[in-house]
Amino acid sequence: MNPKYDPRHIEKKWQKIWKEKKTFKTEIDKSKPKYYVLDMFPYPSGAGLHVGHVTGYTGTDIISRYKRQKGFNVLHPMGWDSFGLPAEQFAIRTGTHPAVTTRQNIDTYRRQLESLGFSYDWDREIATSDPTYYKWTQWIFTILFEKGLAYEAEIQVNYCPALGTVLANEEVEAGVSKEGGYPVERRPLRQWILKITAYADRLLADLDLLDWPDHLKKLQSNWIGRSIGSTVAFVEEKTHEPIIVFTTRPDTLFGATYLFLAPEHPLVEKITTHDRRFDVDEYRKKTASKNDLERTDLAKEKTGVWTGAYARHPITGAKIPVWIADYVLSGYGTGAVMGVPGGDQRDFEFVSIYNLPVVPTYDPDLSQLKMGEDPETVRREVLEGRRCWDGEGTVINSHHGDLNLNGLQKEAAIEAAIQWLERHSKGSRTVNYKLRDWLFSRQRYWGEPIPILHFADGSKRALGLDELPLTPPHLEDFKPHSSGQSPLAKERGWVEVTDPKTGKKALRETNTMPQWAGSCWYYLRFCDPTNKQAAWSAEADKYWMPVDLYVGGVEHAVLHLLYSRFWHKVLFDCGLVHTPEPFMTLRNQGLVTARSYKLPQGGYLHPADVKSEEGLIVQMEKMSKSKLNGVSPDEIIEEFGADALRLYEMFMGPFEREKVWNTDAVTGCRRFLNRFYDMVHSDKVSDEPSEEALKLAHRLLDKVTQGIEGLQFNTAIAHMMEFINAFIPLPSYPRECLKIAVQMLYPFAPHIGEELWQNLGEKETITFAPIPQVIPKYLIDEISTYVVQINGKLRGRFDLPKDKSEREILEIVRTQPEVEKYLSGGIVKTVFVPNKLLNIVVKS
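-> structure tokens emitted (844 positions)
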């Protein structure tokens, strides 16, 4: 009697063997080509993994296992982004030290990943909160400091009093912290900042080197936001202070009918009139609760408040009103912009609300109109100021004194305007960036201490490598100061020291690094994780870098990737790495969504507690602990097995697309594995070859390898299912063909793959068994089915020799009785599609 497929037994067996034999342990081997595949390592939260997390990890594991089969020396590591605010907040709420909860969470995550059979080299495991790791994070910071790329400055920040720390824009939503939902305010604080803007041009230009999705490169490009234009000085009427504006479109300067200042602009206090003071102050209060991303969201409606002040137009001398608007940021450009409603759609929408004038500066090029628009109507509306035109055209209404732009096209008008502004000392050609320097301080305990000593005379010293790691003191009270200081500031014995190298009294820096710091360079430590003398060796860098495939969520499309690229370029300039970019190919796995049940009064219900959907808000949302819609992989593994879960994760849809989770659908993948298992254990297994079986096996080999190489995992699985359906009815199952099929299944379902490999008589692990070469002759059909038409009407379908010429096919077809009787009128011409169609046109 044939054995029954038992995933619980098989999976535990092979996980034990892999662990004991260190099957996936990787060392430098210059006799093999290397392949470095990396996941964006997780933050180990108390909730553990849900099945949405498993998608990316399964994809990289398939690639890792496949590349080993192809003869590559594969580096596939895993670690933990284990510093951060959530652990600290949990510690404050529970009184449990974050080191304890972090260790427990890591153990949970590791157990879950091992239960899924991922082929990580666990000897390379790292955690950003381990002193042996953050010693080198601190060392990299000292490099940045010595190169002048780390500095202190007082700037406006997002500060959360309840959390007692500065928050990044991405940690704030709708004026409250994402962690805990506490109010956030804008306040000036002295902070450590990294000068990422020094690398703006290279970060932008080197995107061309990368095999990344176009939308992701565009996100980075837009975030950097390089633009060439000119500064322009408008003089405020009452104070005679210059208001400096940066514009990329000085050709539209004659169309500027108002100015916008950032609410934080220093001139706002000086120029706001008494009767406008209340409205201005109220607007500024509302702005203070918003982060920069919310303020600059292109989808939001533009709002503003008039200050009561006017400025003089630099060319015409006309009075134009000065407003404040939240979408203008004090840290971007000059903190002031000009409103040109005739050439900017958002400006046009704004003046439509506030009844400000529109001065058109372009006679539109009507060749750009959309289908169905009337050219004369559009032109009339634009010239009358009833419609915005931001396309090409000819400049109008732009002549005053010795500046005449009328009649010019856009590029020529821009250049003429810049030259005029430069000659008249009212502006200058300028390159501007949206990118801001990186706010690097956090007022937290659970983070890397910044390795800087402050002296009484205002000077500073970075700690030397021999003084690292700088570990924080053990604190039981993690609550931050109400003053905004880090919890570390409470420990005076740690803060107040005598510098052993200078003998001077000094204060340690009490701010810690953001969570981004440890994740900026972890890919390098994975290359050489046990090195005690250096963060990584030159040999390890030379062999393993760059990362060949990096996979993670699109939510890290900008900041983590931008910060990592910045640090890598600094290290490249220092001669510490040999590649200008860290991640050559990058792919995002699609989001996994599930049904959530929200109560009208707020809060969520777990799906198991829902008896009726009536009165509930039912939505498909990203899985999360807070929405109670996360599905643990543990329960799926228990019911269906890890291999079935892995298959389903990849079969749900294209790897990079959003997917909808359905636990019931995992059953189909489990049934497929049952059939595969039974096929290998069938009495039909034979050592005799079969032409038909070889054709099916080699076509499977061809299709699945193409699918894996293209990360089209769902189609690869579909081909395996088609193979099973076609193979099972065969009279015998050649062992050679079954081995090929098992090798194709193995990267997706490795436990059953190993088991079936042994069942087929192999003694060694399938992990390094070379994939056979596809034999081309088995991919060729010897016959093709032709559709034959007479004057466009179907007259028959014929199985004919493949790849024959039109003349040869016609000679065969015309002798067929069902065709021959229609040819008496004589053939006029034929329409021929090789291996598919022959249409014969005859005289009617």
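The mean pLDDT is 92.
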